[in-house]
Amino acid sequence: MPEFSHVRASRVLVIAGEARRASRGTVKPLCFRGGRSTDRTGRRKPIIRIKGKRMLYCITLRPLFFRASTARGRIETVMHELFHLSRRFDGTLHAGRRHSVLGKDFSRRLQPLVRRYLKQCPPELLGAFSFSGEVRVLQWLERPGRAYVPGTPRVRKVYTEEQLYYGISRMVTRRRPRTAPRPPRKERVEKPRVH
């Protein structure tokens, strides 16, 4: 979709994480503005490299994504997190697409995109998101912290595949309720009145 043409999937790390209230997913920007590791105050963000390539975003799928969700709901969760990304795709979030800025308008702006995508979504992708059963998902063995001040002791500066592992998660897919067909209406036959 043109609205997501700036997204480069190879620079987005997707992992499974712990529960966080009613959240099904979250996105974490891995850079300061302009793709920099250091901000103007001197704080640094840990660098995440997978197969030698620097990741710019980390999407964490949370237990509610895997449990009691629908295929369409899971696709909407992924699109929701991608909608937060900066159009510059520089490892930062879009300043105008935050919940705190848009409030209820966030959903109003996202929903037409979701509906449009679901009309063109390949059946094999919809099938993958509707899977029920055990799946292997990447998880943190050691999770990167927030930005740090250089010189802070015992802070890992670079994270790679060595800090990740494949865990098992169970996807429980909720089926959309089928509405039973209504029985055909019986025609009312007026009985003749006897006087």
Detailed description of the structure:
This protein has five helices and nine strands, in the order E-E-E-E-E-H-E-H-H-H-H-E-E-E. The protein has 195 residues and is an alpha/beta fold. The chain has helices at 63-66, 71-83, 99-102, 105-120, 123-129; strands at residues 12-16, 25-29, 47-50, 53-54, 57-61, 67-69, 133-140, 158-159, 164-173. A three-stranded mixed beta sheet has the order 1-5-2. It has one domain. Helix 2 (71-83) packs across helix 4 and helix 2 crosses helix 5 (123-129). The longest helix has 16 residues, at 105-120.
Keywords summarizing the entry:
3-stranded mixed β-sheet, 195 residues, 5 helices, 9 strands, alpha/beta
SSE map:
Layout: E1 12-16, E2 25-29, E3 47-50, E4 53-54, E5 57-61, H1 63-66, E6 67-69, H2 71-83, H3 99-102, H4 105-120, H5 123-129, E7 133-140, E8 158-159, E9 164-173
Parallel strand pairs: 1-5, 3-8, 6-9
Antiparallel strand pairs: 2-5, 3-4, 7-9
